[in-house]
Amino acid sequence: MDPRLVELLVCPLCKGPLQLLQDADRTELLCPADRLAFPVRDGIPVMLESEARALDPDSGS
């Protein structure tokens, strides 16, 4: 995913900045304030609260 696009996107809930998380299995946009990870499918960010994954507060992700 283009880093310039990530800079333009904000969390749909709090309007805060997002961080790009990439590993071998998935690509997500993380909102640290809301502790949500929004999926990126086929290079397209899915910015829906119902599609977001809640992050475990005890772990780093």
From TrEMBL:
Q: Which top-level group of life is the source organism from?
A: Bacteria
Q: Name one GO cellular component term.
A: cytosol
Signal peptide location: none
User: SUPFAM superfamilies attached here?
Assistant: Trm112p-like
One Pfam family from the record: Trm112p
Q: Which InterPro entries does the annotation name?
A: Trm112-like (IPR005651)
Which PANTHER family would you find in this protein's record? Answer: PROTEIN PREY, MITOCHONDRIAL, ZGC:162634
Q: What is stated as this protein's family in its record? A: Belongs to the UPF0434 family. In the N-terminal section; belongs to the LpxK family.
Q: What is the protein name for this chain?
A: UPF0434 protein EOD73_15760
Q: What organism does this protein naturally occur in?
A: Inhella crocodyli
